[in-house]
Amino acid sequence: MPCRMPGVAFVPALLVSWSSAAFIISYVIAVLAGHVEPLVPYISDTGTKPPESGIFGFMINISALLAAITMYIRYLLIEKQNESSHFVRSSCNMFTLCIGLMGCTGMGIVATFQELAVPSVHDIGALVAFGSGVVYITLQSLISYKSCPRWNTYFVCHIRMAISVISCIAFIPMIVFASKVSMTKIDWTPGEKDYTYHFMSAICEWTVAFGFIFFFLTFIRDFQRFSIRISTEIHED
Predict the structure, then answer these.
(1) In the beta sheet, which residues pair with residue 5?
(2) H helix or E strand, kind and range, residue 228
(3) How far is CA 220 from CA 3, 9, 90, 106, 230, in A?
(4) Angle 157-160-166 (CA atoms, 0-180°, nearest 5)?
(5) Cα separations in angstroms, 123 against 55, 91, 130
(6) What is the pLDDT of residue 191?
(7) Chain segment 210-219, per-residue pLDDT in tens
(8) In this predicted model, what pLDDT tens digit does every residue of 110-159 receive, in sequence order?
């Protein structure tokens, strides 16, 4: 007997709420424990020392899994829509999915290899996560425009593109300012060497991260129209 799930909007909704909670909970614990300054630390700074490191690693890994599931469902949704109105090449859809999954892999690296323990691996993971994420949401914005007006409204497409542009703009100075920081530490105080670079880079990092969250929030309406059919038939030999 097949089991039918009427709409999968709960997937991006869970991704958005879980990821927001991961950032906020680890930040609050790190600040209360005195491990970071309250004024705009790096996201990774809030998950470096125990006890917040365990919570951060666990929740970000779950976020990476939820993001991968969301991206795969989005891929299937576009493939299904393409059957009746061909608006994007399947190869382009698959390429976009692969870019997104690269970003999820980067998130897993960030969660597993903490900032002070293995800084080089952590930084590579962060670069892959943010870089691939920015490319993914930009490609999804372009695909959304191609699907108008049948599958998306121009209003939603404009919102997605605005989020993508803001994230792209923030991503570049995030990398530039981070490259000018000459030391790896989490206990920053105003006025010390490289603090301004750290502060500006951290602002851009939070901007990009929440840009991803708001972008996936726009998927909820699309996913309400999409159902997954799971076969639970048992065949006897």
Answers:
(1) 228
(2) strand 228-230
(3) 21, 5, 22, 24, 21
(4) 140
(5) 20, 30, 11
(6) 82
(7) 999 999 999 9
(8) 999 988 888 899 999 999 999 999 999 999 999 999 998 888 899 999 99
Closest to 183 (Cα-Cα) out of 45, 13, 29, 9 = 45
8 A C-beta contact, residue 169 and residue 175: no
Give which of 99, 214, 217, 103 is closest to 163, Cα–Cα. Answer: 214
**Number of neighbouring beta carbons within 10 Å of residue 198:** 23
Helix then strand count (H, E) for the chain reads 7, 2
How many other CB atoms are found less than 10 A from the CB of residue 137?
A: 28
Q: Strands 3-5 and 228-230: what pairing?
A: antiparallel
Neighbours of 8 (CB within 10 A): 22
Q: What is the DSSP track for 112-162?
A: HS-TTTSHHHHHHHHHHHHHHHHHHHHHHHHHHHHTTTTTS-HHHHHHHHH
Is this prediction's pTM over 0.90?
yes
163: Cβ–Cβ under 8 A, 6 or more apart, which residues?
137, 141, 211, 214, 215, 218
41-92 tens-digit pLDDT: 999 999 989 999 999 999 999 999 999 999 999 999 999 999 888 889 999 9
CA distance 14 to 130: 20
Q: Tell the residue number behind the tokens 């989020």, with chain if given.
A: 163
Q: Is the predicted pLDDT of residue 237 greater than 50, yes or no?
A: no
